[in-house]
Amino acid sequence: MFEVARTEPVRALTREQLWKGLVRKAEFPEPFVRAITASRVLRRDERELEREVVLRGDRVRERVTFEPGVAVHFERLTGPAWGTIENRIVEDDRGGLGLRFTFRLEVEGLAPGSVEERAFAERMGASYLAAVRTTLRATEALVARGGAA
What we know:
Strand order of the largest sheet: 1-7-6-5-4-3-2
Structural class: alpha+beta
CATH class: Alpha Beta
Number of helices: 2
CATH topology: Alpha-D-Glucose-1,6-Bisphosphate, Chain A, domain 4
Shape: globular
Distance between the termini: 38 Å
Strand content: 35-45%
Helix content: 25-40%
Largest sheet: 7 strands, antiparallel
Radius of gyration: 15 Å
Number of strands: 7
CATH architecture: 2-Layer Sandwich
CATH superfamily: START domain
């Protein structure tokens, strides 16, 4: 299992706008994560949802748990990679907002600590950073259209 974490500064959104964008991303991920080409919510209640997504051609089931106003937790239930992904709203020491993503994954066929696993983790880190940036841009666009104000 490997872990990658990064924080991207948030400049054009309030905490509330960012939170609404993260919830929307959990429900309708395609505009936020380019690697997801299809999705559907299978079950939902006030605290969590279960969804199925097509991620890089693989059908993956995830449990998404909401920590209102703070974080969205994704737990992979099926697919070639197992583990968790977290999107957390953070503040720096000057009160500036950031979006921190952390993923802890184990990938089928990759030995823990191997060169292959480290290379995969680096690629995933770059991919997830791109997804965080896309999430911020998509949320900014929603706000501009009045959808996440």
